[in-house]
Amino acid sequence: MSELKRVCPSRRTEHITYAIRDILAVAHDREKAGGDLLYLNIGDPVLFGFETPRHLKDAAYEAMLENHTGYSASEGVPEAVAAIRAEALANGITPHEILITTGASEAIDFALSALVNKDENVLVPSPGYPLYDALLSRLIGEARPYQLDESKAWEPDIDHMASQIDQKTKAIVIINPNNPTGAVYSEEALRSIIELARAHNLVIFSDEIYDKLILNGKKHTSIASLDSELPIVTFNGLSKGYLAPGFRIGWSIISGDPDLVEDYAEAMRKLARARLCASHPKQFAIPAALEGDQSHIRDTRAKLRSRRDLTVERMNAIPGISCQEPQGAFYAFPKIEVDVDDADFVKQLIKETGVVVVHGSGFGSLPRTPHFRLVFLPEEDVLNRAYDRIDAFMRKNY
Known about the structure:
The chain is α/β, with parallel strands linked by helices. The chain has 2 domains: 13-51 and 295-397, Alpha-Beta Complex (Aspartate Aminotransferase, domain 1), CATH 3.90.1150; 54-291, Aspartate Aminotransferase, domain 2, CATH 3.40.640.10. The chain has 14 helices and 15 strands. The protein has helices at residues 19-22, 24-32, 54-65, 78-90, 103-113, 131-138, 158-163, 187-200, 258-274, 280-283, 285-291, 295-316, 342-353, 380-397, and strands at 38-39, 95-102, 121-126, 142-149, 155-156, 169-175, 203-207, 232-237, 249-255, 321-322, 331-332, 335-336, 355-356, 358-359, 372-375. The strands form 4 sheets. An 8-stranded mixed sheet has the order 2-9-8-7-6-3-4-5, with helices on both faces. Strands 11-15-14 form a 3-stranded antiparallel sheet. It has a two-stranded parallel sheet with strand order 1-13. The longest helix has 22 residues, at 295-316. The protein is globular and about 60 Å long.
């Protein structure tokens, strides 16, 4: 009998990293040594006392009682698709196709997989959510970063974006509101991105999972509402604004001239059919969410505004740290105003204080100045304890 050989993983996995989870190894080492931890790294509202609205839970439970426990249509149940379509139309978007997915992450996976070939590239914001880089690495494509301008409230640097486009560029990703910076893009910036996409015949991917969590009192503008012809894929879901990350329910809205997008939409449908469907009973939470009581959004925003204000005030009072005011979502992206590698900084911070944040370079290679991302979902007493420790850490070491 021949000797068994070690299983070799595929080369496409070599460069896949996910800083938000990868940093936990350092935290676990401190925990094993008996140290306590204050988690400011994971964007899961339910971990910090926010509760999924009861009518979403009831809708999923009632669907199970009504035996909606087999496979659904691959694109999604009609009631949920209709609710998404109605909200899109109300926001000025004309959907060509809607696909309900296992979280917005599966929708993003379908959109990239149906578009990008080996060695082609997609422009991704830097800093930005690392899922796009990971998926493009798996596809053996290139995540090509464009800079967000910290001096302009983290809006996209349109000139730098334009300079990154070449003949192998297929799409531009925007995350609005942005993770990790909390930026909410102006209509002027969105129109400039549309102009660039039109000039180079590019698809726009617009990740709007935080669109219900605008903290500056303004209305969110979806880029797809500004151009009905250009191919745009809008991603959203129940995880953030509807406080249901564990439901794993998201969706994509494909919009644009039908003659331009139908072949692409069919490619995404093929991927949806190949995996059968998203969770059937949980899909019934979508109409409950979009058409039902919205009061939890008002309450959530009020808590987040207070915690955001505390975060900005405390961060800017710490020597060696500065922080822009986030306009949406529940993240801040403080700048470390000393010469340090941000990954080493975060590891040292966790080891010495137990405050778990994520190094800024885990969200992209640009900007080249050191940052870290923190989540301001915890209650204010927890945030104050964490910020006290960061303050003491900076005064001791820097």
